[in-house]
Design goal:
Helix content is 24%, strand content 21%. The chain has 172 residues and is α/β, with parallel strands linked by helices. It has one domain (2-170): Aldehyde Dehydrogenase, Chain A, domain 2 (3-Layer(aba) Sandwich). Helix 4 links the parallel strand 5 and strand 6 (119-124). The radius of gyration is 17 Å and the shape is globular.
Length: 172
């Protein structure tokens, strides 16, 4: 999932730019992520907690979080729980695409409810946030803010649309 979300198209708006890892799985997961990303040629910038578990990563600067690298570079941070992930995303996220990979229904539901993004994806690649993949056809633009109507407004003009994608660990 992480490789596909970053490597398949690193300069697109739906590429993974930051990976948040629950601290309970960090010691098992991060060395595997480190090896896979190193083999793929991805530069990794990790926070203080993740860095000792990733022999090919460098220490992340605060400016690495919330940044769109548009390259084979990714920021990595450990979080204590889903609430910590939601807090990080509220501060640094782009409001474009947010993904959770989890087997916990409780964590998934908390994430869906707590994250403000145009597309929230559960157990699938970030690459599924795409006009054609969502059945919209060709995209004519991309917005990470909520646009308002201009001129007379009806009920539809007072609503915004958000996509939720659920998968079983598919990649695109």
């Amino acid at each position: 999932m992480c490789l596909n979300s970053k490597v398949s198209a690193p300069a697109t708006c739906n590429a993974a730019e930051c990976i948040l890892v629950h601290e309970k799985i960090a010691s098992e997961f991060l060395p595997k992520l480190d090896a896979a990303f190193m083999e793929a040629g991805i530069e990794m910038r990790a926070d203080f907690e993740a860095l000792p578990l990733m022999k090919h990563a460098q220490l992340a600067a605060n400016t690495d979080f919330g940044r769109e690298f548009l390259d084979l570079i990714v920021a990595i941070r450990t979080v204590p729980d889903v609430a910590g992930a939601i807090e990080h995303i509220a501060r640094f996220g782009s409001r474009h695409t947010e993904v959770i990979l989890s087997a916990s229904k409780e964590s998934i539901n908390s994430f869906r409810a707590g994250v403000d993004a145009s597309c929230v994806i559960v157990n699938a690649s970030t690459r599924f946030n795409d006009g054609f993949q969502l059945g919209l056809g060709a995209e004519i633009g991309i917005s990470t803010s909520k646009l308002h109507a201009y001129g007379p407004m009806g009920l539809e003009d007072l609503t915004t649309r958000r996509f939720e994608v659920s998968g079983d660990f598919q990649t695109r």
